[in-house]
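Appendix B. One record, verbatim.
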Amino acid sequence: MTSIESSLHETRVFPPSTSWQHTAAISSMDAYHALCKEAQADYEGFWARLARENLVFTKPFTQVLNQSNAPFYEWFSGGQLNVSANCLDKHVQNGQGGRVALVFESDDGKVSKVSYAELLALVCRFANGLKSLGVQKGDKVVIYMPMGVEGIAAMQACARIGATHSVVFGGFSAKSLRDRIVDVGAVAVLTADQQVRGGKTLPLKAMVDEALALEGCEKVKHVVVYQRTGNGVPMQEGRDISLAELLKNQSDTCEPTPVDSEHPLFILYTSGSTGKPKGVQHSSAGYLLWTMLTMQWTFDIQPHDVFWCTPILAG
């Protein structure tokens, strides 16, 4: 067998500009090595410092890493927090409520901008709406929605009341949706009448109806339907409710529910192309901290930067 060897041997180094280095989260190789040295010397102390500096706990953690049930490690045991409060309330309380939190461009080119205060109010109304349906801490909710502000609010609303959400890609079939609903044990599905992609409307609510008609979905008691296009879709009495109706008269304040550090935040499923879809569960505190540090250290996000994420699916 002949091996392929690369003919490219690159030895050049392209350092960032001095002005860029001065504002970077990790401003130099010395700073990077200092972080590595701190972690190597006392990794528990390292992560404890970062957790206390970056996360808002309602109850302090008592143990950084519990390895007694390996490989099911537990981070920040004894602590409690709320992910939604860390994502939204913290910024509003720090005087950043008027700043733009989300910029969304829909399929038709329309741009929507939502501030932190506006998003927090929407999330609170959504959370109160879910609670009015009986959704509570520990329940599982499937989100089968188009990309958009409402989808973000749905995830945040679940986190706010301690419900675990599972986002299902809007291009999956009714059978694939059903498999994930059953496996996660969902009590509610959040969806839309339709989604818009490439100028075409594609059914979501119809897929949900088809999925819920299949065996095993009996635990689903409620379907919330966001009117994305406004085209009429069948609504099952006693089970289905429009998002507009759910949010109507709801308070724009909702006290965040404290959850344990290891409380399941969300479950994301593999594609299922090689067999039964496998759910990957992410907990609250550890996932939130590493996400924040990834944005700071890898992407070097600064307070006034705009992060552009290319979605898999336009909505």
